[in-house]
């Protein structure tokens, strides 16, 4: 932990910062997985909205 002290003697504690890195572009199989997840989520939301309309 990184600690500093100001002129009044007050301590300021700072968390250790992780190293920065750039995200890599997803591979083709990861992109396909994201498409399947979005289709499944869309299906669930659509079903919930239809159930909500049918109940009300």
Give the key terms.
56 residues; alpha+beta; two-stranded antiparallel sheet
Could you please describe the fold and organization of this structure?
The protein is α+β, with helices and mostly antiparallel strands and 56 residues long. It has a domain at 21-56. The protein is built from one helix and two strands. It has one helix at 28-55; strands at 2-5, 11-14. A two-stranded antiparallel ribbon has the order 1-2.
Give the amount of beta strand, in percent: 5-15%
Count of discrete alpha- or pi-helical segments spanning 4 or more residues: 1
Measured between the Cα atoms of the first and last residue, the distance is 56 Å
Mean pLDDT: 91
Strand line-up of the largest beta sheet = 1-2
Give the class from helix and strand content and strand pairing.
alpha+beta
Biggest β-sheet: count, sense, barrel?
2 strands, antiparallel
**What share of residues is helical?**
40-55%
Order of helices and strands: EEH
* Shape annotation: elongated
Q: Ranges with pLDDT <50 over ≥5 residues? A: none
Count of individual beta strands? 2
**Gyration radius, to the nearest Å?**
24 Å
Describe the SSE topology.
Layout: E1 2-5, E2 11-14, H1 28-55
Antiparallel strand pairs: 1-2
